[in-house]
Write a structure and sequence with these properties.
FAD/NAD(P)-binding domain, five-stranded parallel sheet, 26 strands
Length: 448
């Protein structure tokens, strides 16, 4: 501990888990013998589970922006990226936006930096691919989709029209399904503004490298979603990867060529590369190894949770000893609470509790008014399922005023046509990474 008997807590990452942990700690500790520092590349967080609804024009982007300094008034917020961390000496180096490097000392470190986008070896420029991982990307994607519809309505070339109205999603995980179905609803609304286009001209396809979509959810859930997508005319390519993009075409690993005006990249997440510049233990895939108490395996004074960490799923270990928690919002929120409680217990010298969250599969969302979810073993469909899904996430966005704005603005969008405004997007892809890759090639991680 520090010489002044004040525990210095360093939280790396200001996403859902990091902010939730910091907020709970500042309330629990209330400045008692602890100083909390949170490091994040941006001075705000955007609530990622609702980004597809931003892309669909149902939520104002500003309503998802959570200023960290306003929410975490009793914490020190440092805007920057951890480029190196030596837990053996309790030191971290933070690169700031102005190019300076600041050294921070700590007693307890909490790793919640999330995952990174996993790039597949695809030929063709990244500018050919869109994404919906950040607020900037979600806003850009919305304008891009609307511009494709406007261009299709204006062209007399049948082949070009067909290409512009073809949308391909690479990655059939839960986030990908949310993105596809919300954007499909947006396209259906937008097509109604162009009498020359009929909904049947719009084509959607999903490219998934595994044997089924929604592989992080239950098999029943995945089959149900696949049936709904087939009912909407969505083509699904399983056990297939994207090999090349360019000139308005996407080539798949099975040799199929798709003329697509939009390719949305939602490949599965990869380990955060910043872990390579730490001395913390990693698994074979480069993720942080943690115990069921959310402590970093074999390390005192180090904790981890969220997508960056591999945490045993105690609800499934009887059937599968290697089972780990899936990357869902449910686990993120639940882990933040246990994480904060265990950090407080570590300071007080009391016993830590294990993370045990009964795993309810996240509700699938195959389109407006057509949602379904499995809740505690029971099925809920239609508007009720969609309302449950939406209300769950809105309830967890920090700030009463923010919840109220989203709630008051979101409900009319269920029953009335959305306000569609086509804005100039300037032709460039807006790509913002929430946690940039660290500079240097230290690579001091202990992999096992």
């Amino acid at each position: 501990m520090s010489t002044q008997n004040i525990t210095r807590i360093l939280i790396v990452g200001g996403g859902t888990v990091g902010v939730g942990t910091a907020a709970r700690l500042q309330s629990q500790l209330n400045g008692r013998h602890a100083r909390i520092t949170l490091v994040n590349p941006l001075p705000h967080m955007a609530y990622r589970p609702l980004l597809p609804e931003v892309a669909a024009g149902l939520i104002d982007p500003n309503d998802l922006v959570v200023p960290l300094r306003k929410v975490l008034r009793k914490c020190e917020v440092v805007v920057g990226t951890v480029t190196r961390l030596e837990h053996a000496t309790r030191r971290a180096w933070v690169g700031t936006p102005d190019g300076e490097v600041t050294e921070l000392d700590y007693d307890i470190v909490v790793m919640t930096a999330g995952s990174s986008v996993r790039e597949q070896p695809v030929t063709g420029g990244a500018g050919q691919r869109r994404s919906c991982k950040t607020l900037t990307e979600a806003t850009y994607l919305r304008d891009h989709v609307l511009s494709r519809i406007a261009e299709a309505a204006a062209t007399t070339d049948a082949g070009e029209r067909r290409r512009l109205l073809t949308f391909v999603l690479v990655g059939g995980g839960y986030e990908g399904m949310e993105c596809l179905t919300e954007l499909d609803d947006l396209v259906r609304f937008a097509v109604g503004r162009h009498p020359g286009i009929v909904p049947g001209e719009v084509t959607w396809a999903v490219v998934e490298e595994s044997e089924r979509i929604l592989r992080d959810a239950g098999s029943k859930h995945a089959v149900r979603t696949l049936e709904r997508l087939a009912g909407r005319g969505v083509r699904v390519y399983l056990n297939t990867t994207a090999e090349a993009t360019g000139d308005g075409h996407l080539t798949l690993s099975d040799g199929t060529e798709v003329a697509a005006g939009t390719v949305i990249w939602n490949a599965p997440s990869a380990a955060n590369p910043m872990l390579l510049d730490t001395d913390l233990p990693l698994d074979a895939r480069g993720r942080l190894r943690c115990t069921s108490t959310l402590q970093v395996a074999g390390e005192s004074g180090a904790f981890g949770a969220g997508d960056i960490a591999v945490v045993p799923d105690l609800t499934r270990v009887d059937d599968d000893p290697s089972a780990v928690c899936r990357a869902t919002a449910l686990h993120a929120h639940a882990q933040a609470k246990v994480l904060a409680d265990n950090v407080e217990s570590a300071i007080a010298g009391t016993a830590l509790r294990q993370y045990h969250q009964p795993n309810a599969d996240a509700g699938a969302n195959p389109g407006l008014y057509r949602s379904f979810a499995e809740v505690r073993g029971g099925g809920v469909e239609g508007g009720k399922a969609r309302l449950l899904h939406w209300a769950y996430h809105v309830a967890r966005i920090p700030g009463l005023s923010r919840k109220t704005r989203i709630f008051s603005g979101r409900l009319p969008g269920q029953r009335f046509r959305r306000h569609l405004v086509e804005r100039s997007i300037g032709g460039g892809s807006a790509t913002v990474h929430e946690m940039p890759a660290p500079s240097g090639d230290a690579g001091r991680a202990k992999a096992s």
